Amino acid sequence: MTYQFDFRVLFPYWADLLSGCGLTLAMTCLSAVTGFSLAIAAVMAGRSRHRTLNLAAVGYIEAIRYTPFLVQVLFIYFGLPAVGFSLSAWPAGVLALSLNFGAFAAEIVRGGVDGIPKGQFEAGAALGLHPLQVLRFVILKPALRIIYPALSSQFVLLLLTSSIVSAISAEELTATAQSIDTLTFRSFEIYIVATTLYLLMATMISQTFKAIERRAFAYPVK
Amino acid sequence: MIRDFSLIEVLSIVAGVKATVLLSLIAFVGGGVGGLLVALLRTSAGFGMRTAAASFIDFFQGTPMLMQLFLVYYGLPVFGFHVNVWVAASVGLTLHASAFLGDIWRGGIEAVPRGQTEAASALGLSYFHRMIDVVLPQAFRLSLAPTVGFLVQLVKGTSLTAIIGFVELSRSAQIAASTTYRPLLAYGAAGICYFVICFPLSRYASALEKRLAARV
Question: What is the DSSP letter of A9?
Fold first, then answer.
């Protein structure tokens, strides 16, 4: 092998890489919050008595789940301006990630809500609670416990997926790595570094989620 | 030059569908072989082999697929392999699929009751026959639904090869979008094509899952 690895040329860019990580994390957290709200809305629409709302929820979830994220983000960033809805790269990336996370999280949340015995909803209704109150005071915690593991791996997946928004040049870790690549021509080295950073972030996040799970949901089932 | 969305664009998107399907099949077959190896190593008795397989799986599950493709695309030439983008895309996706299928099948192998392995050893079967004749057929049945489910993820994953310049469905849509300036149409069409491939696959996976649940 004649290739000489040279990681030293990357050293001056450590601050850029660090801020890339920060942007990736910020984008992931923001998209997770908006996406989770979307997921709740989709689940409620799916459970509502109005047929149109049901169909809208199913259409949204299936359209997102069976198309690649890359196509979604390109559609939003390049396609939607044609109908007068244009966003700059970062918000477009966040919107795409939120929509994506929302659809997958909706499936998880629905599974959690379905896992709650019907009697609990009925008991809540019998107490005179509004359906929203039933959701908040009766269903939420046991449902959270059911969905927590799947939701936390979906969050890590969201972090990894966020690298794709570099395709529309939204500034985050992958885009940062790409611009360092064009400055140094050290493609292999910079992507090794970026990959390692992603791996570190993903590992740290999933370990944190596991620690939280052990603490928050350690109460006995019965 | 801006041109109309014509038959040429339609044909190039159809060619893109073909490339996407072909690449998915290559990665699935390659990943099937690699995944079997990973699953067997992951469930083997040797500590070193188990750890190596586990790290392989963790790496691919803990890093973005795009980064994996970049590493293969820029890494292969470093190791002296000057390959075209077909090979780079196939190798990258095959490695990715090996890790994910390896993990799915590990689950399948572990779900086969221990007594089966013990009974097979008691009958004097070698490791090879124990696996081929006793454990793997049962593990395969258990893992069939998640395997088909992963295929959906893989088909969608092939879209990322567009970023390293491989012309498949997403890339042809990108090209059509920029030559005709009809991005809504081009990406919409690509999305529909993916949907048409992935939706039936996913339905098939859940049907398999229900059938298995009914049998157990």
Answer: G
Q: Which residue of A has its CA nearest to B158?
A: A68
Q: How many domains in chain B?
A: 1
The CATH number linked to B196 is 1.10.3720.10
Taking contacts as CB-CB distances below 8 angstroms, the residues of chain B near A3 are 78-79
Q: Which of B62, B68, B156 sits opposite A203 (nearest CB)?
A: B62
Whether chain A has a CB inside 8 Å of the CB on B2: the answer is no
Cα A126 from chain centroid (whole Å): 36
CB–CB contact B156 A72 (8 Å): no
Q: Alpha-carbon distance B163 to B143, whole Å?
A: 31
pLDDT of residue B1: 59
Question: pLDDT of A161-210, one tens digit each?
Answer: 999 999 999 999 999 999 999 999 899 999 999 999 999 999 999 999 99
Q: What does the block give as tokens for A208?
A: 């944190």
Q: Determine, yes or no, domain membership for B164.
A: yes
Fold of the A13-216 domain: MetI-like fold (1.10.3720)
Q: Do B194 and A66 touch (CB under 8 A)?
A: yes
pTM, two decimals, is 0.91
Closest CA to A65 of B68, B107, B191: B191
Return the structure tokens found at A21: 């990580």
The CA distances from residue B62 to A205, B58, B100, in Å, are: 11, 6, 11
**Nearest residue on chain A to B155, judged by CA atoms?**
A68
The alpha carbon of residue B109 is apart from the nearest alpha carbon of chain A, in Å, by 22
ipTM of the complex: 0.92
**Looking at CA atoms only, how far is residue A123 from chain B in angstroms?**
30
Q: What is the pLDDT of residue A135?
A: 81
User: Per the CB < 8 Å rule, is B156 touching A78?
Assistant: no
- CA distance, residue B17 to nearest chain A CA (Å): 13
Measured CA to CA, the distance from residue B27 to residue B33 in angstroms comes to 10
Give mean pLDDT, residues A93-99. 98
List the single residue in B80, B190, B194 with the smallest CB-CB distance to A1.
B80
Range of the structural domain that residue B35 is part of: 7-215
Segments of chain B scoring below 70 in pLDDT: 1-2, 216
Helices and strands, counts by H and E, chain A:
9, 0
Assigned domain for B2 exists:
no
Q: Determine whether the interchain pair B195/A69 forms a contact, defined as Cβ–Cβ distance below 8 Å.
A: no
Of A6, A168, A178, residue with least CA distance to A71: A168
Cα B165 to Cα A46, A56, A149, B85: the distances in Å are 39, 35, 36, 7
